[in-house]
Amino acid sequence: MSEPSATPLIHGFEFDSNGGVKRLSWEDVKSAPAECPGVYRWLHLNRLSPEVRDWLTRTSGIDDVIDASLLQEDTRPRCIRHGSGLLVNLRGVNLNEGAEPEDMIAIRIWMTESVVVSLRAFHIRAAQDLRDQIMAGDVPETTGEIITFIAARLTDRIEPVVSDLDSQTDDFEEQLLQPGASLPKTALANFRRKVLALRRYIIPQREALSHLAREGDGILSQGDVLHLREIGDRVTRIGEELDSIRERSLVLQEQVVEERAERMNQRLFVLAIISAVFLPLGFVTGLFGVNLGGMPGAASPLGFTILCLIMVVVTAGLLFLFRRMRWL
């Protein structure tokens, strides 16, 4: 089941201490604050909806500074403690139809002990996974479990993308090991662009998760903190793998440039040899082509044949000389 894209509230759930779950509609949410006494909530909202913007700034009860951060257009992964809550921005690979995975999409989260408010502009599967789990009866016991689940699912989907990039690097290396093999001119440039686009967000995401685990006192349980540290370690390994892929791609780029330069040098060398052979021949033909009296052999019927034999001998001599000098 896909997320509804037009509604302000994409997913909304209210949980009580007895494990009860209540699905919320936009009508339940739009006229009340985000937090509700005696229960804890998860509200997953459409950031592009004007109704959501109006609710956040007027009704939600969330600080104006946090509202502005949740609604801003471009964000990098980060985690900031503000009062009794945490502002968390994370990124996930874009697996939507027609999109490129490296065009990572953001999920912005405000969390306290009693509410998790998450916003996104494009469909993000980690939120859909959490919704499916809740509908299957597996209810998160705290708001900390909600954000931990989302962070884990985001990481789960980043790892295969990075693994595919590593496999693609192996394929490039194998291609270049083949004699005479070459890569399309834009192949490595496009590949490096993908790696850099992922790395741009993976490195700060690692710091954001580490900060979340440190700053979550009073909101996150010890189990949540341990889980977040494990997720942070996974993101660290992803970052290290991206660094390795980037370095390997740089080596491949240098190898491609060297091979192209070598092929160019070989072609220029062939042209130089041809020029060296034909330069004396051109001089001889130019000299004997002048239309002046007294040219030797001008009156002899064998003059042209003798001249051709002389040029053949000169050519053979030059080729023999180049061979002895190991130019050929």
Structural write-up:
Belongs to the CorA metal ion transporter (MIT) (TC 1.A.35) family. It is found in: Cell membrane. The protein has about 325 residues and is an alpha+beta fold. The chain is about 55% helix and about 15% strand. A 7-stranded mixed beta sheet has the order 2-1-3-7-6-5-4, with helices on both faces. Strand 1 and strand 2 form a beta hairpin.
Briefly characterize the structure.
Helices cover 56% and strands 13% of the residues. With 328 residues, it is an alpha+beta fold. A hairpin with a 2-residue loop joins strand 4 and strand 5 (85-92).
Counted by DSSP, the helix tally is 8
Order of adjacent strands in the largest pleated sheet: 2-1-3-7-6-5-4
Derived from helix and strand composition plus strand pairing, the structural class reads alpha+beta
Helicity range: 55-70%
Mean pLDDT: 86
Q: How much β-strand is present in the residues?
A: 5-15%
According to DSSP, the number of beta strands is: 7
- Major sheet size, sense and barrel closure: 7 strands, mixed
Shape: rod-shaped
Unreliable spans: none
Topology as H/E string?
Answer: EEHEHHEEEEHHHHH
Distance between the termini: 69 Å
